[in-house]
Amino acid sequence: MPPVTTPTPGRDAPVKVHGGRHSGEHWNEAMEQGAAVAKTIAGTLTPYPRLPWSWSDQHGVTIQICGRPELGTEYEVHGDPAACDASVVFRRRDKVVAVVAMNRPAEFRALRQLALHGDRPDP
Ligand SMILES: Cc1cc2nc3c(=O)[nH]c(=O)nc-3n(C[C@H](O)[C@H](O)[C@H](O)COP(=O)(O)OP(=O)(O)OC[C@H]3O[C@@H](n4cnc5c(N)ncnc54)[C@H](O)[C@@H]3O)c2cc1C
After folding, report:
1. How many structural domains does the chain have?
2. Atom of ligand 1 nearest to the CA of 25
3. 17 alpha carbon – ligand 1 mean position (Å)
4. What is the CATH number of the domain that holds 102?
5. I want to staple 54 with a disulfide (CB 3.0 to 4.6 A). Which of 9, 16, 26, 112 is the partner?
6. Is residue 58 packed enough to be buried (19+ CB in 10 Å), middle (13-18) or exposed (0-12)?
7. Pocket of ligand 1, candidates 6, 8, 27: which has the most ligand atoms within 8 Å of its Cβ, to mutate?
């Protein structure tokens, strides 16, 4: 078998969706990267080009983040951040590069698809 490059779970994995490298020290990334490593070791080369994403419950607020907000040059807010009921879409050159949501899991799931594919959200 030729040598393969696999990510070390939770450590500085390449992000093919928006470029660069990302240290994803979150539960879901540890699980998904671990699965990619295991499949590769078992013989099915499984790169990890996924969009970084994570969630956490903090003081009754479910926070979900995907992509790389630091790449965004513009952002738009949907909802009411003061009420902890909002999502923020970060764009760069018209492409969605990140989403941060508070207590909006369904909207987050839809926007995450846009970040994965780099599309514009509907107004
Ligand atoms: C306080 C806290 C809150 C967090 N909250 C969130 C959150 O809200 N959302 C989120 O997505 N992520 C959260 N995280 C991060 C998340 O817990 C970690 O990213 C994830 O657990 C990493 O999983 P892992 O399997 O890579 O490592 P770990 O969960 O650290 O597991 C590594 C295991 O290997 C064992 N081990 C280490 N060295 C050896 C050795 N030499 N021999 C044998 N065994 C060894 C350890 O004992 C451990 O059981 C939080 C972390 C902390 C500390």
Report:
1. 2
2. 19
3. 25
4. 3.30.390.30
5. 26
6. exposed
7. 27
